[in-house]
UniProtKB/TrEMBL annotation:
It comes from the Eukaryota. It comes from Streblomastix strix. This is DDE-1 domain-containing protein. GO terms for molecular function: nucleic acid binding. Residues 2-47 form the DDE-1 domain. Pfam families: DDE_1. InterPro entries: DDE_SF_endonuclease_dom.
Amino acid sequence: PHCADELTNLFKKNNIDILLLPAHASHGFQPLDLCTFHAMKSRVKQMRAGFEKGTQGHQIQRAVMALHASTNSFSNIAAFRKGGITQDCTKTPAIATIDEIRFQQQVEKVLG
């Protein structure tokens, strides 16, 4: 329809590429789930909180502590790279780009 054409032209004008993912494959391209949150979840049980064990406060504090211990700019960049998204710092401002080879590898991994 007319609206779709306008959007397509707007995306092209602003150098935005639309990626269509296969059905039931989006989980394999959520960068923070691929690395950062996986590391966080593996650390939660190791964290010691100041709240009474088993309380909601205890669970929340452990999750926050694990997230702080698991995330930094380097791990987040690595997470996006694993999903096939890289940054081009030669441009100002830096832009996100798709690493076609890594992206295709991730598609093959997700689709089996």
